Amino acid sequence: MLKKSVGALREVSNKAHNAELKLFLEIEDGLGLHPVPPPEKLKDDILLFFKLYDPEKEELRYVGRLFVKSYSKPIEILTKLNVLAGFAPDVEIEIFEEIKYEPSVMCERLDKRASFRFSQIEDGDIICFQKRPLSEVQENIRFPEVPLFLEYVKNRQVVHFRALERPKEDDFSLDLAKNHSYDDVVERVAKRLGLDDPSKIRLTPHNCYSQQPKPNPIKYRSVDHLLDMLVHYNQISDTLYYEVLDIPLPELQCLKTLKVAFHHATKDEALILNIRLPKQSTVGDVLNEIKTKVELSHPSAELRLLEVFYHKIYKIFPVSEKIENINDQYWTLRAEEIPEEEKNLGANDRLIHVYHITKESAQNQVQVTNFGEPFFLVIHEGETLENVKVRIQKRLQVPDEEFSKWKFAFLSLGRPEYLEDSDIVSSRFQRRDIYGAWEQYLGLEHSDTSPKRTYAASQNRHTFEKPVKIYN
Predict the structure, then answer these.
(1) pLDDT tens digits for 343-374?
(2) Could you tell me what percentage of the chain is helix, strand and coil, using 3-state DSSP and rounding each to the nearest 5?
(3) Of 202, 226, 263, 458, which alpha carbon lies 20 to 30 A from 53's?
(4) Measured between alpha carbons, how far apart are the two ends of the chain, in Å?
(5) 3-state secondary structure of 400
(6) Structural domain 155-251, CATH architecture
(7) Residue 448: partners with Cβ closer than 8 Å, 6 or more residues away
(8) How would DSSP label each residue in 301-326?
(9) Topology (CATH) of 346-445
């Protein structure tokens, strides 16, 4: 008989595509701790297993099994259930059938006055019961009834939260549910941080492959559930990053925030500014905002905004350009004063790019590499390299001993042509297109000895050679 039963179970298990079949043996001890044989099972008997749920402890535990008649009713075994639970015989209890757990939870209340047969209760079914919840204490109970608790257990997810500015350190963890809504999650985070306004919480997902925050944060109510925040391709993460904003996220999303490095005309410090303006604002609005935050060399100084990437200037933004589509995640935005000499360019003057370069050997080839701070320089018609060098040394304040070791080269498409002091620099630069970063520039070849400072924004890094101060 046992072999036949196990065989039937194995067949059911295989149909469920579960290679492992787990069996549990229950032994009831009698007097002298001797095992007592189970009662004889008659034709109308049903073997049921019972679990007791404690809402206050949030605990569901097995408390025993009973044989019942299929034509009997749950109301007839209430006293026995109270005994199993250790309750007083007359305690009112609620009864539920735990139907299934996968792929979704199904747990339904049993009609205590309907027969087990009518309710389609069969051998081996699991019945959960609990004290009837009291309305006056129910407010403080997270999961007052069994179905709610099983749903919670099914969807339970421990999430580790990290401050975005400290992406390597777990700050705190919360026991959440995968089906928690966006509002549920930010409210729990805000409560943990002691913050009154959950809308000031901004969350960023985790990249399971790089182990870093993703570049883009989660927009306000842009996802339905916690699970949507945690999924990364075919993996589920258990990490989220948080920020505490100074204004509600819905308001912030109507604004554009740009991180701009301001380079003073005479000072060595580069200031990192967070410029926050409506998305329809222009570059001119950005520059006006910067003027209110920095010290200028003179009150009427004019500013420009540059796009810098890998130590090269790629673009000067027109003041009329809208800021909505400007990307500061991968390029460095640099603001600087426009020198007076650039405002009064002669007909034959040239405005050229000047980059710091060094030579590196890679795969048996010598490559030119850029580093340091690029800048513009006005060169005049007929001006020799010797004269240009004097102005460059004065601008960069390089000591004579070090500057004497520098070499100067005209580069077009990355190929250097070294210049002599007597060479006319302007003759090399036939174009006045200052936007062509890959076209022509004057390279200052020397060793890279300047100390490097880094500024990290999320997982992206912008490098500045000047010391950096960050202002919000």
Answers:
(1) 888 888 888 999 999 987 666 677 888 899 99
(2) 20, 35, 40
(3) 226
(4) 78
(5) helix
(6) Roll (3.10)
(7) 356, 358, 371, 372
(8) --EEEEEEETTEEEEE--TTSBSTT-
(9) Ubiquitin-like (UB roll) (3.10.20)
